[in-house]
Structures are given as C-alpha cells and as structure tokens.
Amino acid sequence: MAETHYCDTSLIYLKPIQKNMAKDIIVKNHYTHKWTLCTVAYGVYYKEYIESTFFGGFNSKLIGVLVYGQAVGRNASTSISPLLDNSNVLELTRLWIEDGYGKNIESFCIAESFRQLNHNFPNVKCILSYADSEVGHIGKIYQATGFLYQ
Q1: Residues 80, 110, 17, CA angle at the centre, nearest 5°?
Q2: Res. 150 pLDDT band, cuts 50 70 90
Q3: How far is Cα 113 from Cα 69, in angstroms, rounded to an integer?
Q4: What CA–CA distance (Å, rounded) separates 35 from 13?
Q5: Is 37 helix (H, G, I), strand (E, B) or coil?
Q6: Rounded to whole angstroms, how far apart are CA atoms 144 and 41?
Q7: pTM for this structure?
C-alpha cells in the first residue's frame, strides 16, 4: 500500500547511537543484512503520544538508523576534488527506516543527519553514497536530498 501522507517532522528526531545497536538493526532489517564501516550511527526516533491519567506525554521509539563511515575507495576523496583528503569525506553506508511513518521520512532524516554531521564533524566537506543498481536502486532518495547522481 502506498503511503499517502507526509511524515510529521515534529515527531521525528535523530541522535547518535552505539555502533553495536546500529549493527543489530542493519543486520536484521536492511536488505543487504550486512554490516559495514561505521564512524557514526544516528538512530531515527519517533515520538509516540502516551495518554495516561498520571503520565501523559511522549515515548520515543527507535524506528531506523543511518550509518556513516570512511569512504570505501582509497582515492574517493581526491576523485571528487584534489583539495579533499580522506578526513574530509564520509560515506552514507547504510540507511534503514521502518515503513509507515510517512512519505519523505528518508530525505528528512538524511538532511537532519547532515546538520548533525556539520556540527559534530566540521572537517567533513563531502558525503558520498552509492545506489545499488543490482537491486534496482537508482538513488531517488539521495537525489531528493541534494546528492548529485553520477
């Protein structure tokens, strides 16, 4: 069934999570079922409203993960620009978000992760990601977020 509503960005937030937690989620849920290089992992959280006589408010549910690691290719940074080195480039190596939280949730979470990376890794000037054409991926989510398709 196609989702007809956009994600409610006021209910979604990201925060760094431990690598072993990200690994468990990726191996269980990502289509590759394989772990990868990881410099930082961000958990995608959804704020669920809890209605209670005594404890009303929100509860956070982990619904996804974004994993960034060092670029796989030894010359990845200099292939982009001779002004870059490997410390300036990260690769979005894995992205998985549970279905059912609205359209555009992936692009919202990628953009939010960029904001956090910019703050926490100021030396990073470029993010790479690869679309897996062997399984029919053409990078639509990445392109919607501003990646250049090459």
Answers
A1: 110
A2: low
A3: 13
A4: 23
A5: coil
A6: 21
A7: 0.87
Q: What length is written for the chain?
A: 150
Helix/strand/coil percentages in the chain, nearest 5: 30, 30, 40
Whether the predicted pLDDT of 76 surpasses 50: yes
**Cα-flanking dihedrals φ and ψ of residue 101, to 5°?**
-110, 15
Contacts of 38 (CB under 8 A, 6+ apart): 19, 22, 23, 67, 68, 69, 93
Contact by Cβ (8 Å): 23, 47: no
Instruction: Give all strands of the β-sheet with 126-128 in edge-to-edge order.
Output: 12-17, 40-50, 57-70, 89-97, 126-128
Radius of gyration of the chain (CA): 17
Distance CA 86, CA 69 (A): 11
Q: Which of 43, 45, 41 is nearest to 19 (CA)?
A: 41
Q: Which helix (H) or strand (E) holds 119?
A: helix 105-120
The answer to whether 113 touches 66, Cβ cutoff 8 Å, is yes
Mean of pLDDT values over 44-70: 85
Q: Residues 137, 64, 15, 36: what is their CA dihedral angle, to the nearest 10 degrees?
A: -60
